[in-house]
Automatic annotation (TrEMBL):
Transmembrane segments: none annotated. It comes from Tricholaema leucomelas. The gene is Chst9_0. Belongs to the sulfotransferase 2 family. This is Carbohydrate sulfotransferase. It is a single-pass type II membrane protein.
Length: 165
């Protein structure tokens, strides 16, 4: 969008007419990730700030949805999928398949760009890691996390998420 366009400009800085014009003119792609995997990733990146995954999760739950970090804030509150019609939703763990389709639809070469992705290793690693981390949590923490991310779990295809149970 030509007016006031800069990489750091946020959508909320425009008026409603400008926002609607921009959203109609762009191809909108949303990349989503299982909320439990996002928590694990955040914990792994901040090792040292919490003694255990369980205490890290407790800190997240106590912070609440309004005061929480963007790293683990529910996606629905960040991306507004109920208000913005995304042209594509790409799920982490299926990048190779979904990006191939996206690149093909955009008329870009597919094969040479997707050689680096190894989704099967990523899915296996997160499956194993999720099980280990999930077993560290109390039943109450599991229930609170499911409630904390209930809108994400309803809005996106995370059928194999530990939080879906």
């Amino acid at each position: 969008y030509p007016r006031r366009h800069a990489p750091e400009t946020q959508l909320r800085e425009f008026n409603l007419t400008e926002i609607e014009a921009m959203l109609r003119s762009y191809t909108k792609v949303l990349f989503v990730r299982d909320p439990f995997h996002r928590l694990i990733s955040s914990f792994m990146q901040s090792i040292g700030s919490s003694p255990s995954f369980s205490s890290f999760v407790q800190d997240v739950l106590e912070s609440g949805q309004h005061n929480t970090s963007m790293a683990w804030k529910p996606l629905v509150s960040l991306c507004q999928p109920c208000f913005i019609h995304y042209d594509f939703v790409v799920v982490f763990g299926f990048f190779r398949q979904e990006l191939g389709h996206l690149l093909q639809r955009a008329g870009l070469p597919v094969d040479s760009l997707l050689l680096e992705f190894t989704d099967s290793h990523v899915r296996w690693t997160y499956s194993w890691l999720s099980e280990q981390m999930f077993n560290e949590l109390s039943l109450q923490q599991k229930q609170h996390l499911s409630h904390f991310y209930q809108q994400d779990l309803a809005a996106f295809p995370f059928s194999s998420s530990f939080l879906s149970d």
